[in-house]
Write a structure and sequence with these properties.
Length: 269
């Protein structure tokens, strides 16, 4: 389904009726990254293509900071969820965007599951994804993209990665493979425009009254000191670990679904 927002069209995958959980993907991914997790979860759900990703509209200003895209995401959730407040599950950029949405529209949010990201994440913590997106943007094959993802530590080889690459790319008329997301066709000064400091999201997270779960990937982007800061700033949050690389939803979907299901059930959301 699609929703027209002030920032352009937002595309979404709708699973079942009366969604309970909305999933927001990481930078350079799309809604299909959640397919296996949502299937394992077995609850009615939404999965959005964030602005600039999948089949959602690109922003002319190339500004995909969480606070910038949160209004469009909130509009889409409000319309597609039929007014029912959601548990927001967000990974990486999606996790930061979920925090921004909770701050902007607390009426839409009944819980936050933040996957392998924190407002305190530092530029060096996520260097792998920056290296990936700053590398070659035109490829001879999808297999070449998969190999690069493995080499930069974003994913492990296997069917989950291959499926993710398939849904995240398209083949040009000349046979070359390019990404569907805007980062794959970025302006020359894109590196300077990418946000590096997310600490401005701390107030929204610290003042939220909804339950919070942080899921850390043991081989992801959150070092112990960043997790410790999260625990100190949000003492009511529960923190769990999954033995995975950063894209937990693709590498360990059943384990992540189990944590989300328990989180939703325990709070009777």
């Amino acid at each position: 389904m699609t929703v027209t927002t002030a920032d352009g069209l937002i595309n979404a995958l709708v699973w079942g009726d009366a969604p309970e959980v909305t999933f927001l993907h990481g930078g350079g991914l799309n809604a299909h990254t959640w397919d296996a997790t949502i299937e394992a979860l077995g609850r009615p759900a939404l999965a959005l293509d964030l602005p600039g990703h999948g089949d959602s509209a690109w922003r002319d200003d190339f500004d995909y900071a969480p606070a910038t895209i949160a209004p469009a995401v909130a509009t889409a959730i409000g319309e597609l969820a039929g007014g029912r407040p959601q548990v927001l599950v967000g990974q990486s950029l999606g996790g930061l965007t979920a925090i921004a949405v909770a701050g902007l529209r607390p009426d839409l949010v009944t819980g936050l599951v933040i996957v392998d990201v924190s407002p305190g994440i530092r530029e060096q913590d996520a260097q792998q994804v920056r290296s990936f997106l700053s590398g070659p943007l035109v490829f001879s094959s999808r297999e070449e993209i998969s190999a690069l993802a493995v080499a930069t530590g974003i994913a492990k080889p296997g069917p989950a990665l291959e499926r993710g690459v398939y849904y995240n790319t398209r083949i040009r008329e000349d046979g070359k493979v390019i990404f569907k997301h805007h980062f794959g066709s970025a302006p020359a000064d894109a590196a300077e425009r990418l946000p590096r400091d997310f600490t401005g999201l701390w107030p929204a997270l610290e003042r939220t009254t909804v339950p919070v779960l942080l899921v850390r990937a043991t081989n992801g982007y959150l070092p112990p000191e960043v997790v410790a800061e999260f625990a100190e700033r949000v003492p009511s949050a529960r923190i769990e670990e999954i033995d995975s690389v950063h894209n937990v939803q693709e590498q360990c979907p059943a384990e992540l679904a189990t944590l989300v299901d328990a989180f939703v059930g325990s709070h009777q959301i």
